[in-house]
UniProtKB/TrEMBL annotation:
PROSITE patterns: FE2OG_OXY (PS51471). The keyword Endoplasmic reticulum does not apply. It comes from Aggregatimonas sangjinii. This is Alpha-ketoglutarate-dependent dioxygenase AlkB. Signal peptide: none annotated. Its cofactor is Fe(2+). Gene3D superfamilies: Alpha-ketoglutarate-dependent dioxygenase AlkB-like. Keywords: Dioxygenase, DNA damage, DNA repair, Iron, Magnesium, Metal-binding, Oxidoreductase. Residues 101-199 form the Fe2OG dioxygenase domain. GO terms for biological process: DNA alkylation repair.
Amino acid sequence: MLLPFSEGELLNLPDCEITYVPDFLSAESADAYFKEFRETVTWQQDDIKVFGKVYPQPRLTALYGNNEKPYSYSGIVMQPQRFTPSLIAIKNQIETKTQVEFTTCLLNLYRNGKDSNGWHADNEKELGENPVIASVTLGQERYFHLKHRSKKELKYKILLKHGSLLLMQGETQHHWLHQIPKTARPIGERINLTFRVIP
Ligand SMILES: O=C(O)CCC(=O)C(=O)O
Ligand SMILES: [Fe+2]
């Protein structure tokens, strides 16, 4: 994947390849995209199964793509809708930087500080051996936590700001877990777009 260092910060962590690009979108286009996706995406709340118990997922989601391939995780199977022009525009902007062609975008809406995304790796088998994930943040900034699977002392957190891009690639999903924790602070809504490759 091509990404000149001048355009992003490669996190100084072992066993992973994670790049943060804080100013990926201008504030104006990030504002406009937030408003558009908030209003026009058909957000759904699925149930997830954790240790045999069923809970409503603590955020809303939607799936878009340029093929018919479903995406399955945590016992949920999502069918994609066709990419919208705005999702295609953002995807093209990411592809220019990364030289990777993305097929699918999972959108997350965190309505407030109680919404979250628990510890996981994006290692579903449809994503291939070394998944490439391009994650765009719109709206409220939230912390993104990382922890190494076996070296328990290795932890990291990064504040993902409005209009930023975070790229995970290489062996990242084999060795690290990530989460968006809850926060007790009164905060606003955040939309996250995670572009993925499901060939
Ligand atoms: O909201 C985020 O920044 C992370 C989302 C995520 O990890 C996922 O959808 O797999
Ligand atoms: Fe993830």
